[in-house]
Design brief:
It holds the Pfam family Methyltransf_3. The protein is α/β, with parallel strands linked by helices. Helices cover 38% and strands 23% of the residues. It has one domain: Rossmann fold. Helix 6 links the parallel strand 4 and strand 5.
Length: 184
């Protein structure tokens, strides 16, 4: 599979199915994704989105986006349903509109995911959904003895989402943990 060739971990089927359900339940028309990969998670999201919905996917790796576009075409997804943006998420996210997205999916290394989540909350409409993959970060988050930078970053993200009174969060036991929160 292309994901392995590019050194990418594609979302597991359980995470994909949860994303499809979240997109459908929120009647998503506008979705943003950080971490395009080979387009696997985007395909799940698109399957749950409204027929006229548009998915914006951001990745710093141009090659990943090229492969994702091939995946979209092979799946019969119209080019008008996807918008790929190459660049660092911290440079791109601030340029995306406030309160304009129904769902934002973060599938990236945890180092900057807390900053991505801050931007995502700003981007969500009331009732919109934030979803973060690998929220348990290889089962390290629950182990207080794990103090490496990435584990601490993911632990802090979980704490900040739980403590944000504007969010209604839960942790779904799929994949490496899917942190989901609805904006009040």
């Amino acid at each position: 599979m292309r994901a392995e060739e590019l050194g990418i971990d594609a979302v597991p089927v359980g995470v994909g199915a949860a994303l499809r359900m979240l997109a459908a339940a929120s009647h998503a028309r506008a979705v943003a994704e950080v971490g395009t990969g080979t387009g696997v998670s985007a395909l799940w999201l698109l399957e749950g989105m409204a027929e006229d919905g548009v998915l914006t996917t951001i990745d710093v790796e141009v090659e990943h986006q090229r492969v994702a576009k091939e995946s979209f075409a092979a799946a019969g997804i119209r080019s008008t349903r996807t918008r790929t943006i190459s660049g660092r998420a911290l440079d791109v996210l601030p340029r995306l509109a406030d309160s304009a997205y129904d769902l934002v999916f973060l599938d990236a290394e945890p180092g900057e995911t807390g900053d991505y989540a801050e931007q995502a909350v700003r981007m969500l409409r009331s009732g919109g959904v934030l979803a973060v993959s690998d929220a348990l970060w290889h089962d390290r988050v629950a182990d207080p003895a794990r103090r490496d930078e990435l584990t601490v970053a993911m632990r802090e993200l979980g704490r900040s989402v739980r403590e944000n009174e504007d969010l209604i969060p839960t942790l779904l036991p799929v994949g490496g943990g899917l942190l989901v929160a609805v904006l009040r």
